[in-house]
Amino acid sequence: MTRLQSSFTPDASKDGGTLLSVRDVAKHYPIRSGALQRVVGQVRAVDGVSFDIRRGETLGLVGESGCGKTTLGRLVSGLIAPTSGQTYYDLDSSSLAALDAAQTLPEAERHAALAAINAAHGIETMPIEAKNRFRRNCQMVFQDSFSSLNPRHLVIDLVGRPLRVHKEASGSDLTERVVELLEQVGLGRQHLYRYPHQFSGGQRQRISIARALALDPELIILDEPTSALDVSVQAQILNLLNDLQAERNLAYLFVTHDLSVVEHMADRIVTMYLGKVVEAGPTRSIFDASAHPYTRALMAAKLDLGPAGAASENKAVLDGAVPDPARPPRGCRFHTRCPVATAQCGWEIDDIVRILERHEALCDTLTDVTRESDFAGTLVFEDADAAQKMAAVLASEAVPQPFRDALELAETTGTKLRVRFRQAEDIKLTRRGPDHLAACVLG
Amino acid sequence: MSMEMSDTKSARPVTPVTIASVRGLKVHFQSKAGRVHAVDGVDFDVRDGETLGLVGETGCGKSVTGRAFLRLLPVPPGILAGGSVMFRPQTTCPDCQGDGCERCDDSGRRPAPCPKCRGQGCTTCDQTGIESLDLLTISDARMRDIRGDRIAMIFQDPSKALNPTLTIGEQLGEVFLQHRHADLLAAAGIAEDQPGWQASALRRLASQQDRGTDRLLVKLSGAMRRKHRAIRQALDERIAAALSETQIPNPQRVMQSFPHELSGGMRQRVMIAQALACDPDLIIADEPTTALDVTVQARILDLVRQLQTSRGSSVIYISHDLSVVRHICDRVAVMYAGRVVEIGDVEQLFTNPRHPYTQGLLAAVPTTRTPRGQLAAIPGSVPELIDPGPSCRFADRCAKAHGPCASHDPALQPVSAGHDVACFLEHPITTASRARA
Question: Residue A227: closest CA among chain B residues belongs to which residue?
Answer without folding.
Answer: B290
